From TrEMBL:
Bias (Low complexity): 36-90
SUPFAM superfamilies membership: NHL repeat
Pfam families in alphabetical order: NHL
Protein name: NHL repeat containing protein
Keyword Chaperone: no
Residue ranges of NHL repeats: 202-227
Highest rank taxon of the organism: Eukaryota
Keyword Nucleotide-binding included in the entry's annotation: no
Keywords: Repeat
Length: 278
């Protein structure tokens, strides 16, 4: 399987929709309103834990350019962490990075290095990272990753939840361990049942450690109670792409707030969807 990313940033149209009950996994009434922002907002700025490869690479390029129109605010106020515009396998290089998550207590960043099939750890302001997961070639084994995309740092278990795009699963890699354990999905098997995923992109958790997965190929969001592998669709309709308020088209990033509201990058529809929790 080749790299999944040929993305462009989402438009500034933010569509607010509801409403799916996460706690009961049943759909209730739906209301829709549209909010247009005054400036362009990319999908990567909405998600606190995931950055698309296209926006990551453009931010890196911006740090080395003198054009004010293409330099983002983040690059003007911070230094470049990795080697600019040069992909590679060294500890100060990345190759098509996608996801990023932050350990706030230790001020450590974890980045999925997609085409190197590994996750890198970077201390704040460091220019060289450390491999914490994968880096054993592309594969399905428990010591390998297969195009890792979304990543979520779970402070309660000092572990990373990693989306294995090419393996159609989500795995947990305890920091310091040499292998992963399966969280959801069936390694190497794609599908649309409640226990399977199809080219997932992102993962996050709520305050009760329930797991949410952007199951992109199935055009849905899957909800898994903590410790369970049988999911429930809480947004979208399995296998049905669309642009109405109840449908998704290739969701790629997901965030859950303290009230259990879900925010989704609805990539192919060029919008951000909000599904309210009741």
């Amino acid at each position: 399987m080749s790299s999944p990313l040929t993305t462009t940033a989402a438009s500034s149209l933010i569509t607010t929709t509801g409403v799916t009950s996460v706690a009961t996994a049943t759909t209730v009434s739906v209301t829709t309103s549209t909010i247009t922002t005054s400036s362009t907002t990319s999908s990567s700025t909405t998600s606190s834990s995931t950055t698309s490869s296209s926006t990551t690479s453009s931010s890196t390029t911006s740090s080395s350019t003198t054009s004010s129109s293409t330099t983002s605010s983040s690059t003007t106020s911070s230094s470049t962490t990795t080697s600019t515009s040069i992909s590679g396998t060294s500890n100060n290089q990345l190759d098509t990075p996608y996801g990023i998550t932050h350990d706030w207590s230790a001020n450590i960043f974890y980045i999925t290095d997609q085409n190197n099939h590994r996750v890198m750890k970077y201390l704040s302001n460091s220019t060289s990272g450390t491999v914490v997961a994968g880096n054993n070639g592309q594969g399905m084994g428990t010591t390998q990753l297969n195009y890792p995309l979304g990543v979520y740092f779970d402070s309660s278990s000092n572990s990373l939840l990693i989306v294995n795009y090419g393996a159609h699963n989500v795995v947990r890699w305890v920091l310091g361990a040499s292998s992963w354990t399966l969280v959801v999905g069936n390694t190497g098997v794609s599908g649309s049942t409640s226990t399977l995923l199809f080219t997932p992109f992102d993962v996050t958790c709520d305050s009760m450690n329930n797991v949410y997965v952007a199951d992109s190929g199935n055009h849905r969001l899957q909800f898994f109670f903590a410790g369970q592998s049988n999911g429930t669709t809480v947004a979208g309709i399995t296998g049905t792409m669309g642009s109405t308020s109840t449908l998704l088209n290739q969701p790629t990033s997901i965030v859950v707030d303290a009230q259990f509201n879900i925010y989704v990058v609805d990539y192919a529809n060029s919008r951000i969807q909000e599904f309210l929790h009741y």
